[in-house]
Amino acid sequence: MSSTTHTSTIGAIGAPSRRNTELALLAFAVVIPLFAYINVGLALDGELPSGMLGYGMGLGLLAGVGHIVVRKFASYADPLLLPLATVLNGLGLVVVWRLDQSERLQNLAKAQFGAFSPSAPNQLMYSAIGIALFVVVLIFLKDHRVLQRYTYISMVGALVLLLLPLVPGLGMDVFGAKIWIRVGGFSIQPGEFAKIVIAVFFAGYLMVKRDALALASRRFMGLYLPRGRDLGPIIVVWAMSILILVFETDLGTSLLFFGMFVVMLYVATERTSWIVFGLLMSAVGAVGVATFEPHVQKRVDAWLNPFSEAVLQGNSDQIAQSLMAFGSGGVLGTGLGQGHSDLIGFAANSDFILATFGEEMGLAGVMAILLLYGLIVERGVRTALAARDPFGKLLAIGLSGAFAIQVFVVAGGVMGLIPLTGMTMPFLAYGGSSVIANWALVGILIRISDTARRPAPAPAPNPDAEMTQVVRP
Amino acid sequence: MNKPLRRIAIFCGLLVFALLARDNWLQYVQADTLAKHEKNRRVTIERYSQPRGDIIVDGKPITGSKVTTSASDLKYKRTWKNGPMWAPVTGYSSQRIGASQLESIDDGILTGNDDRLFFRRTLDMLTGEKKEGGNVVTTLNGAAQKAAYEGLKGRGKGAVAAIDPSTGAILALASTPSYDPGDFAGNTDEEAEKFIELDKDKDKPLVNRALRETYPPGSTFKVVTAAAALEHGLYDDIDGKTRSPLPWVMPNTTTPLKNEGDLPCKNASLREALRVSCNTVFGKIGADLGKDKMLETAKKFGFNSEQFIPVRSNASNFPEDMDKPQTALSSIGQFETAATPLQMAMVAAAIANDGTLMEPYMVSDLQARNFDVIEKHSPKEMSEPLSKENAQKLQEMMETVVKTGTGTRAQIPGVTVGGKTGTAQHGVANSKNPYAWFISYAKTDSGSPVAVAVVVEDSAADRGDISGGGLAAPIARDVMEAVIKSKK
Question: Which of A48, B77, B302, B447 gives a 20 to 30 Å CA spacing to B434?
């Protein structure tokens, strides 16, 4: 393989726009969740669900709007990202609706909050807002490099977003994690938005400083150590992450930001030593905090012994319930609507939504979902490879890397691979902030990929060309 | 910048791969363990998702299932027809507490999970039929059970066991005070409290006294001692004089063994000694035979081993290690001798069946929902505690007891009845009210249809009134009569 085919992974000059491919895939992305929806209705009530037409048209309309806007404003964009996000969002909606039908969860909500309100209509509304934000990004962000101008404003913005949950009267403590704020009647998870804003800041900052950060001081065990004074930024971000962990008791967000920074730092400087430093620092941070922070200790306990009496009684049975939901699903699952994943109780339709997929769609279904996520990340990384400017590369890899880490942290948590952290499955899980922020994330990736694949403007006509005609013999 | 990008791509690939590997571990390798985990509520939900199979008596179910009305994820709960009467037979099956006795032992058949139903289940799955529980058909006799339960209920605490001597089939198994398993079949807190209340009750209503309580058998054990005397050739003629002085001082002691009152026990014949229930005669027989020979006969009747009918019955006890005076006391059903009502019914049944003891059982067959028989019990011989001639001699003796002895209240017009009363003392220095015993069998032209053992622990009655003949014999008579009537 020659290096040229590698560097311009997505199309060379004059590449086809692939908009029709996207449209065909979108048709699947709408039809698959629609079938799932019908499936749930048949399993629960034995008849076609009444909202079938409305739901199908709603999802179709959202996908259609997304497609038209992409066709008009980002015609060379990657054709997979929009259908992938649509199918995940659609399936998420189906399962949120399915869990709305659970009597057990309804009773739980009544016991806890006095009343039960279905989540699916809200989720549909959040999806619509998400698509709207996606459209806004594509229409108003003509070139992603514009974002570079807002590097330091982004930094301030990200800090404000991250600190909001700590503001008294605004922040909410939900089961030990302080990552929510309440505005009007809505609860918002600012961390989801901070993810994007902080990626913009990192990309802008690292693009400028990469040469300095890449300077090596001395060699140690095969690694070029960075200069002491260049350690500043990574220590600041590390300290931020630790602060998030300690004050918001949110392991997930903390891990996500630090991971994203290390990935982007490595890509910007091409120095493996940064990865080693990053891993060391996160290990030190995690272990350090775990020694005095009971919230983190509890999570680790629940992860190590999900079935022990101490954990089930005094801590939470969520992980045990989640594991049993996966196990009960087996290879092919019970079929949508026929499982008992609602035993998980609180957060069954948000953080733990993957367990419902596990029980009702089985190993086959979860593998498919994971591969869909894998594909989104893969398209993101390809976009980074294809981008022609360093800022675009860094932003794309930052966003895709964060997406990958988030999927790993959440899915790994509910499957008992790593300690559970309070984060949501992108697109699948119930939650306005998550859905809206992830649509914006996909919008930015589509914008970068459009810029990357767009044919270079035709070279200006060279006046000399006419003069030097080849004389045929 | 592209080289690190590719590495990051590989890293992301590894993250996804780790998730896929973990998922395979969970949903393939560990799937079964997790699906059947003891904490997995799905197992319970599944168990109660269809009506439970029934327990059948006389061709009619004595149990049922109904849809739970309380907000519960467990759909069906168990119901019983006349629960307190049948509780010693069925046991309970509660969503909260679990199951006991027959409900527990044949749970697989009743829920439909039994492997023997596997083929049917697979077919049902293909044809889309819902899984259904099978039935457990018992040998019990509804009329006899009713007679036993009604008889006991009027007399406080006690138990009855009735057996068909020719097959070993259990005909009645009653215990009072009883409980209604329907009171705590569901999953609510009130039902759980009801169970705790029953469990703490000092009258122990949850204990199946017919199988799980051992009582000193008192004079009813003299039948076993008589069998041992005949079998081991100590005496041959039941009407000949025995070598029995009165008073009789137990060997190696200075204590004379007392009779209940001034009885004509001096050198009394076996028939006479059993009729008036002489302690001296049978105590001396025990001492003369020695503990080994007594133990041998007792064991042949089923003592010292648990019975499974298929519900477990506690082992009755004939002491294995004792001296001569203790052997004498044990031979009249005192000292450490203790027997379950089932055990004493087995003793009567073996004698009534001409010396052959049949294995007791109460489940005749297990059926699938469509009445296909999955397993059928065929009567099995358990042992031969005494020969046919000796058994018939003993029958004559027991029939004399009912005709003119202590057991006259068990007489049934037109039916030959043999029996033996017992009044067992217990408590420190015999301070507590004694237990009233009666064991008997009835005989018609076509052999013996029923043998029965009754024990009544009546703490309210005046001590003087408690005797096997007075309290227990009428119950035994009613049970035998019910069986004979139902055979006609």
Answer: B302
Across the interface, which of A324, A401, A412 has its CB nearest the CB of B34?
A324
Mean pLDDT of A402-431: 91
Once rounded to an integer, what is the mean pLDDT over residues A397-401?
96
Residues from chain B that touch A416, judged by Cβ atoms under 8 A, are 22, 26
With a CB cutoff of 8 Å and minimum separation 6, the contacts of B140 are B57, B58, B89, B170, B171, B172, B173, B362
- A428 and A370 in contact (C-beta within 8 Å)? no
Q: Is the pLDDT of residue B163 over 90?
A: yes
What digits encode the pLDDT tens for the residues B272-293? 899 888 888 998 898 888 888 8
At residue A243, what is the residue type?
L
User: Which domains, from first to last, does chain B contain?
Assistant: 214-487 (3.40.710.10)
Task: Identify whether the C-beta of residue B282 lies closer than 8 Å to the C-beta of residue B294.
Answer: no
pLDDT digits (tens, 9 = 90+) for B297-319: 999 999 999 989 899 999 998 88
Contact criterion met (CB < 8 Å) for B30 and A327? yes
Of the candidates A107, A110, A106, the one whose C-alpha atom is nearest the C-alpha of residue A119 is A106
* A249 Rama sector, left if φ>0, alpha if ψ -120 to 50, beta otherwise: left
CB B162 within 8 A of CB B479: yes
Name the β-bridge partners of B94. Answer: B98
3-state DSSP call for residue B451? strand
Whether A243 has its CB under 8 Å from any CB of chain B: the answer is no
Task: Record the pTM.
Answer: 0.75
Separation CA A326–CA A333 (nearest Å): 9
Q: What is the mean pLDDT of residues B205-230?
A: 90
Phi, psi of B411 (to 5 degrees): -65, 140
Q: Is the CB of residue A311 less than 8 Å away from at least one CB of chain B? A: no
Query: How many whole angstroms separate alpha carbon A57 and alpha carbon A62?
Result: 8
Closest to B310 in 3D by CA, of B380, B383, B385, B384: B380
Among the partner-chain residues A267, A312, A363, the one whose CB lies closest to the CB of B24 is A363
Is residue B466 over pLDDT 60?
no
Confidence category of residue A105, pLDDT binned at 50, 70, 90: confident
pLDDT of amino acid A11:
46
- Among A381, A403, A406, the strongest candidate for a mutation testing the B interface, having the largest count of B CBs within 10 A, is A381
Active-site residue set of B = 219
Structure tokens at B453: 């053992």
